[in-house]
Design a protein that fits this description.
With 324 residues, the chain is an alpha/beta fold. The protein is built from 12 helices and 7 strands. Helix 8 links the parallel strand 6 and strand 7.
Length: 324
């Protein structure tokens, strides 16, 4: 699957690919995906902007929900793009992740249901969150506020009516908002754009993850990496994908997300691509990526993590010079 899902849906080749994907999906057994034994709290983060982070968070969440799993999306980005794409109110005055982090409002009071997907729920972000970085500085245990809120929610954990997945969409920075997410989560899902500059900040992100693991959250590990905006027609994309797969191995999903007009259009209609155009290549690829994520399950404590000192991501220019 990962070798064929790479084209913009505006090209004739993509139209042919779309038909192939539809046939492949129709032959695949339907039904719900396996439920994890307890809630998988996943941090969707990459401090570089424009890599498809929020797009990945909302579409993976929608895809998992369409497969029968119960999903909660927590929007920690002051821009509120995930809230927009999931069509939940997030104007000033709406109870949001700001109240959870700064005022200690219980998470259950902030959660909103998605208007179209019964299994999908959202904690929106408002513009008030832009000042949370400063306000959190003076608070006790400022980096653990989200973790405490999740621990107090009755549907996060191993209960029968639990959220199967909690996806935390982070801002494109490594400030206190992202730190709260890293302390709260057990897994990281890192979207990586298949372009040269997308790798430059990855080493810093991995170093931050290692520091959080050492001092604040020993459970945290990079479990999933997803290649986004992928186009196999360019040598650069192939070079970046090869480096990422070499250094991260099984952590990289086999399915890559293609450049897609439909994926880009969907948020302007207040939708994920899963509801905006379910048969488009982008939607089908996110469905396949979600299936892969669920079927591989949560990583075990002994899984190998990449070393940021030796990863090519920490020094991408060493091996990708010929791929520009």
């Amino acid at each position: 699957m990962g070798e064929t899902v790479r084209y913009d849906d505006s090209t004739p080749m993509a139209k042919a690919l779309e038909q192939q994907l539809l046939v492949r999906q129709s032959r695949r057994p339907g039904g719900a995906l396996p439920r994890p034994e307890e809630s998988r709290v996943m941090v969707v983060a990459n401090q570089k902007g424009g890599v498809g982070k929020t797009t990945t968070a909302v579409n993976m969440a929608a895809a998992l929900a369409q497969h029968g799993l119960k999903v909660l999306v927590i929007d920690l980005d002051p821009q509120g793009n995930a809230s927009t794409a999931l069509s939940v109110p997030h104007h000033r005055g709406t109870l949001s992740s700001y109240e959870v982090l700064v005022d200690g409002t219980p998470l259950a009071e902030v959660v909103q249901p998605h208007p179209d997907l019964a299994n999908l729920f959202v904690v929106p972000a408002t513009i008030d969150l832009a000042g949370a970085e400063i306000e959190l500085v003076s608070l006790v245990a400022r980096e653990s506020r989200l973790r405490k809120a999740l621990a107090a929610h009755p549907q996060v954990g191993g209960a029968e009516d639990r959220f199967d997945y909690v996806l935390i969409d982070c801002p494109p920075s490594l400030g206190l908002l992202t730190l709260n997410a890293l302390v709260a989560g057990a897994e990281m899902l890192i979207p990586i754009q298949a372009e040269y500059y997308a790798l430059e900040g990855l080493g810093q992100l991995l170093e931050t993850v290692e520091m959080v693991r050492t001092h604040l959250n020993q459970e945290l590990q990079v479990s999933t990496i997803l290649l986004t905006m992928y186009d196999s027609r360019t040598n650069l994309a192939a070079g970046v994908a090869g480096e990422v797969r070499e250094h991260f191995g099984e952590q990289v999903l086999k399915t890559a997300i293609p450049r897609s007009v439909r994926v880009s259009e969907a948020p302007s209609y207040g939708q994920s691509v899963m509801t905006y155009d379910p048969s488009s290549p982008g939607a089908l690829c996110y469905l396949e990526a979600a299936r892969e994520l669920a079927q591989r399950g949560a990583p075990t404590a002994g899984d190998v993590r990449p070393n940021p000192e030796t990863s090519a991501a920490a020094n991408p220019s060493s091996d990708l010079g010929g791929a520009r």
